Amino acid sequence: MEQSINPPFSTWESLLARPTASYNSLEPLVAEVFEAVKIQGDAAVRKFTQQFDKVNRTEFVVAAESLKQSEKEVPETLKAAIQQAKTNIERFHKAQQTDRVFVETMKGVQCWQEKRPIEKVGLYIPGGSAPLFSTLLMLAIPAQIAGCKEIVLCTPPDENGDIPAVIRYTAALCGLTQLFAVGGIQAIAAMTLGTESIPQVYKIFGPGNQYVTVAKQWATRLNVSIDMPAGPSELLVVADASADPDFIAADLLSQAEHGPDSQVIFVTTAVEMLDKVTRAVKEQLEDLPRKVIAEKALANSKMICFSNDEEAIGFINAYGPEHYIICMKSEALYVSRIQNAGSVFIGNYTPESAGDYASGTNHTLPTNGYSKQYSGVNLDSFLKAITFQKITKEGIQSIGNTIELMAAAEGLEAHKNAVRIRLNKLSDEN
């Protein structure tokens, strides 16, 4: 990991850079796949699945029998852990439910807001080197709580063309019935456009690699919404001399092992922590099964020492981390001053992996600095807020003049007349 001590502001741009390819460079391929899926449907999905994943599947649908069979294929201890995580995630997301908001803005003018579920949603669960069944929990549970009528799940098949048993088990546990063995750009295109097998949806959720991220953004051009641009995983840890270097190293490596394009950042105000954490990272790295992947991610990662809290906080907000761990004596200062982060983990005993799996918070979070304008997935992500109003005779008489004056000032005479006609009839009745 590259080290920097008291870097001047002029160098921050390079320190803030992510190890991601230019989206512009990926768009031609994404456009090609979308166009093919639009014209050829399932045939194009099969072609690209064979081309990108080296898998031949004639059917994408995962049979109901396969979902049932998964119950026998997953160890009891793992099933118990998944069920515990499910309970905590449900508890946290059910707590996000809100009542109808009602207010009478003036006498006879009633306004309220009610939430409705997005009817058709698509969930994308990455596969690759690690089947992320935890992401399935994070997306399916709030979708079910919200009351989405149709939930479509796409996830890449393994080298044998199968879906891992733990994915199938988790899908069944969450009550999902539409599971498709499709990944990558072609999965996003299929859910965006619809094919003979895969239904079209209104909003797509889930993280993925750079290709999936660009594909999701392409989907927005075709009137399909997305949760956020969620690309390669990232973590920023801020710690002072009071923190445990072994804990910090473990947290950094927990994100580095996600993939070679992941990034971890260590920020400190205690210069001696740079070498302490470096040594701990090297020691722990040797024992990791995914050492090679983590090493590649660490090559894109940085360790930075700032001379004071103000500079450190300024840099953290400029970076806008997906995951943010605070291990500082002055943790209250860092908590209160954070503006841009996907999810925050506070204290020496709050590893990022707790949020990844089982604490209850959602781990589908904005990456690549998008925490400056996006929230992580939550219950509201699966809902729409609809406003209502009802105005009585008394109400239109009270507010009518205001509407007329404003409409006239904007030169919209028909708007004014919609009120004037009503007021004139009420006047005639009296």
Can you describe this structure?
This protein is of the alpha/beta class. It folds into 3 domains: 146 residues, Nitrogenase molybdenum iron protein domain (Rossmann fold, 3-Layer(aba) Sandwich); 213 residues, 3-Layer(aba) Sandwich (Rossmann fold), CATH 3.40.50.1980; 38 residues, Up-down Bundle (Single alpha-helices involved in coiled-coils or other helix-helix interfaces). Strands 1-11-10-9-12-13 form a 6-stranded parallel β-sheet, sandwiched between helices. A hairpin with a 2-residue loop joins strand 2 and strand 3. Helix 2 crosses helix 8. It starts with a strand and ends with a helix. The relative contact order is 0.14.
Name some characteristics of this structure:
430 residues, alpha/beta, Rossmann fold, Single alpha-helices involved in coiled-coils or other helix-helix interfaces, 3 domains, six-stranded parallel beta sheet, five-stranded parallel beta sheet, 17 helices, 14 strands, globular
